[in-house]
Design goal:
459 residues, alpha+beta, Uridine Diphospho-n-acetylenolpyruvylglucosamine Reductase, domain 3, Alpha-Beta Plaits, seven-stranded antiparallel beta sheet, 15 helices
């Protein structure tokens, strides 16, 4: 536990009302979307970088962990206080500082909700593309820490492609600025890119500079329904080969279709092997041509039915099924292991066939969906966590799925990061030497290992 005298000192730094020490308060910050639970000793809500710096000075002196937390929506346990300590909640860093429409950049604090930020920039005819499924409640700071992606990654890239500068409080209490406010900048090592995706282990981000794009003039959404998964996968390849780069290209397998239909009852064909949702955007005339061309590609690849949304309401209805997948899974089982492997697009059928084989071999229900356009598959293993045998089978299945992913030239995580859930497997991809180099980087930034310990690396 953190000493009472230390708690009082922290209260003087941030204000008594911004320190939670009661059990009931601390429980609310003991879990994230993994549903794993680790109780912090203290929860603190700082308001600025100097306050965080002062807290780090105390933490280094007293030797207790500091764990940054955004909305707690992560799927890899990155914000969990696995060794107790002080949870640093960034909720008060909730301001959009400025939107510069002349230079197409914005200054934003890490506690801003991503979806809210997107709406604000769109009011000025601008566009911030990263769109994780959690955008209505996840924060930009969390997105930066995990290098979040989303459906639009196929055309527009992921969070790291938009972050050009940061203000960061280092674990040793120094406050640094990284990056630029310009299109170009190659002065020294790129510390901005190092921080993006570092999962809150190298520093605490207190200000973010992001680049923006002009808002696309028009967009259209197409849904294709397939009796065979291989035909859906061939459609993905053919769309890209046709020189069309969709804004989004999502897929649902049969298990996810059944889950959503049971959840929403909107008339999805539960006997279909796969559904593709495709969005194109840009100039109005080009969008219409590309939508028509994609419709023909879908039909050529034996889609049973192809629908093109003609207005905003029908477009929303098509995307409704995709957004309902995650909540619908809780009707199947309250517990799941959620992985986010990524393989080359052409290998999607191979990895899905492998996953289905593993599911049968271990008698597990596995639901697959995700971003077919960039090969990012969300693999959901539905389990009863109270069954030791089922959990054991699921863990064996995960390791086999990861190995198959690597064998196909893929990666163990496309969006969710490593955190604690993937830490046992990181050497499979990086090798011992790669992990050692990363540990040395961590040691340089955080010599006392007080910032978010127990994440990414084991031991």
């Amino acid at each position: 536990m953190i000493e009472r005298s230390v708690v009082n000192k922290i209260k003087r730094i941030v204000g008594e009302e911004n320190v939670y020490s009661e059990l009931e308060e601390r429980i609310c910050y003991s879990y994230d979307a993994t549903n794993e639970r680790y109780l912090p000793d203290l929860v603190v809500f700082p308001a600025n970088a100097p306050e965080i710096s002062e807290i780090f000075k105390i933490a280094n002196h007293k030797g207790f962990p500091v764990i940054p937390r955004g909305a707690g929506s992560g799927f890899s346990g990155g914000s969990l206080p696995v060794e107790g300590g002080l949870v640093l909640c960034m909720a008060r860093f909730n301001r959009i500082l400025s939107i510069d429409s002349e230079n197409l950049i914005a200054f934003v604090e890490p506690g801003v909700i991503t979806g809210h930020f997107q709406k604000e920039v769109e009011k000025q005819g601008l566009f911030y593309p990263p769109d994780p499924a959690s955008l209505s409640f996840s924060t930009i700071g969390g997105n930066v820490a995990e290098c979040a992606g989303g459906p639009k990654a196929i055309k527009y890239g992921v969070t790291k492609d938009y972050v050009i500068g940061l203000e960061v409080v280092l674990p040793t209490s120094e406050i640094i600025s990284t990056g630029v406010q310009t299109v170009k900048g190659v002065v020294g090592y790129d510390l901005t890119k190092l921080m993006v995706g570092s999962e809150g282990t190298l520093g605490i981000i207190t200000r973010i500079i992001v680049k923006l794009l002009p808002k696309p003039e028009s967009k259209k959404t197409i849904m294709g329904i397939y009796p065979k998964l291989d035909d859906a996968a061939k459609t993905v390849s053919d769309i890209i080969a046709s020189k069309i780069v969709p804004a989004a290209l999502e897929f649902m397998d049969q298990n996810s279709i059944v889950c959503v239909e049971d959840f929403l009852g909107i008339g999805l064909p539960i006997d279909a092997d796969a559904i593709l949702l495709i969005e194109v955007d840009g100039d109005c005339d080009i969008v219409n041509k590309e939508a028509s061309k994609i419709q023909q590609i879908c039909l050529t690849n034996k889609a049973d039915r192809v629908e093109i949304a003609e207005d905003k309401e029908s477009e929303e209805n098509l995307w409704r099924a995709r957004r309902a997948i995650s909540p619908s899974l809780y009707k199947v089982s309250p517990s799941k292991i959620n992985e986010d492997i990524t393989v080359p697009r052409s290998k999607i059928p191979d990895i899905l066939r492998t996953i289905n084989g593993i599911a049968k071999r271990y008698s597990l229900k596995i639901v697959n969906f995700g971003h077919a356009g960039d090969g990012n598959i969300h693999v959901n293993i539905m389990i009863d966590k109270n069954s030791e045998q089922e959990v054991d089978r699921a863990n064996k299945a995960v390791k086999e799925i990861f190995q198959a992913t690597l064998d196909l030239g893929g990666t163990l995580s496309g969006e969710h990061g490593i955190g604690i859930t993937k830490a046992p497997y990181i050497n499979m991809e990086l090798g011992d030497l790669g992990v050692q180099v990363m540990k040395k980087i961590k040691q340089i930034f955080d010599p006392n290992n007080i910032l978010n310990p127990g994440k990414i690396f084991q031991g």
